[in-house]
Design brief:
Order of helices and strands: HHHHHHEEHHHHHHEHEHEEHEHHEE
Strand content: 5-15%
Radius of gyration: 24 Å
Number of domains: 2
Shape: globular
Strand order of the largest sheet: 5-4-3-6-7-9-8
Helix content: 40-55%
CATH architecture of the largest domain: 3-Layer(aba) Sandwich
Number of strands: 9
Low-confidence stretches: 171-180
């Protein structure tokens, strides 16, 4: 602080001093000499390099997904010449890609020139939802080619991501045209399990409960819940053609007696009453504060005392998932032109402002996929 400003708080002064020490060449030399401190310093240096090289890592993964290399390695061991012929690469280029993936555990060479899936590769090769996200992220990469230019834009200006979500009809919380985009349908259907798995591991519905998924699209989340809880009645609220299509899919699986479609717009129409639990799955963070508060207020008006709103999405400032919240989703939603990542505390404050009596954060095994907040009417 300068001039006549008051003395900086202790925490600010401590961080400034820490940063000055860490930047000192003499301190770095000293760290290199002491074994215990050296291990810590090496770990910190590795983290810093991963930030620096992260874009390269993501593009290596993208190459594995888009080229079909995961499938080739899944039938391995295969030689790099075979990979080259299948991917239309030179032999040297194929070997470079295989070795790059080896460093990220996407590929592995257990015998000389015999390439197979690595540990991370085996997980990702089996996860169609993760692969759909990787393919989708090519749009974000284009928008982030010049991040400062992106941040200087008015958020109403079109971007690659905003064009995609506008075409899919999902930018404002309803996928009225999602069936027209194969990528949108695949992304929603295959990636929903990221959140559903966290809910199933962390939350138990009241017995014989009635669940209404608000903005539930074609029912992917409800499909997971219905499979896990046989006594759960499933309500789907979305725009008319989406709700009807989703309910038809759910009814075919569970029977019409367990499924109720509710057509409507969750901003302008009354939310159906008579449900014990309402869910907002990856919906709230898609909207700016004013719209998000309007949605929460509309939902609160439909709930009887004791009913619950289950909010499940990646949240900012979550221990163990900080990068996913404010870094990834912070930039992703900026590029999308709507919404922002919020912390559980921010969502709780917004829920109380909307009229909810209290809130409860529910820990999840993998907060990088989703955190859960329950708001009680």
């Amino acid at each position: 602080m300068s001039g006549g400003s008051p003395k900086a708080p202790l925490k600010v002064r401590w961080i400034a001093r820490r940063n000055a020490v860490f930047a000192s060449p003499r301190f770095q030399y000293w760290c290199a000499k002491l074994p215990l401190v050296n291990r810590i310093a090496r770990a910190r240096a590795g983290e810093a390099f991963d930030i620096l090289a992260g874009f390269t890592y993501s593009q290596i993964l993208r190459s594995y997904v888009e080229s079909g290399l995961f499938d080739l390695l899944g039938h391995g061991p295969v030689g790099h010449q075979h990979v080259a012929s299948q991917l239309d690469l030179s032999r040297d280029a194929a070997l470079t890609l295989l070795r790059a993936g080896r460093a990220l555990r996407l590929s592995e060479e257990p015998i000389e020139d015999g390439w197979m899936l690595g540990e991370a590769g085996a997980v990702l090769a089996a996860d169609k939802g993760a692969q759909a996200m990787v393919r989708h992220h090519r749009l974000l990469y284009r928008d982030l080619a010049d991040p400062l230019e992106l941040l200087r834009k008015d958020r109403k200006e079109p971007t690659e991501l905003s064009r995609f979500w506008s075409y899919a009809g999902a930018l404002h919380g309803a996928a009225e045209r999602g069936t027209e985009t194969a990528e949108y349908s695949e992304l929603m259907a295959t990636s929903q399990h990221f959140v559903a798995d966290q809910v199933l591991a962390s939350y138990r519905f009241p017995k014989n409960a009635r669940l209404l998924d608000v903005g539930g699209g074609h029912g992917a989340f409800l499909m997971h819940m219905g499979n896990a809880f046989e006594d759960l009645h499933l309500g789907l609220f979305d725009l008319p053609e989406v709700a009807q299509a989703g309910a038809a899919i759910l009814s075919q699986r569970f029977g019409a007696h367990r499924v109720t479609p509710h057509p409507g717009n969750f901003f302008n129409d009354a939310i159906p009453e008579g449900y014990d639990v309402l869910s907002l799955v990856r919906i709230l963070h898609d909207h700016d504060d004013e719209a998000a508060l309007k949605l929460l207020t509309n939902i609160r008006a439909s709930l009887a005392p004791g009913a619950q709103l289950l909010i499940a999405e990646p949240m900012a400032r979550t221990p163990g998932a900080q990068g996913m919240g404010e870094a990834f989703f912070g930039m992703y939603l900026w590029a999308m032109g709507s919404g922002r990542a919020r912390s559980a505390d921010e969502i709780a404050a917004m829920a109380r402002k909307a009229g909810f009596v209290r809130t409860k954060a529910v820990p999840t095994p993998q907060p990088i996929n989703a955190s859960i907040l329950i708001a009680f009417a």
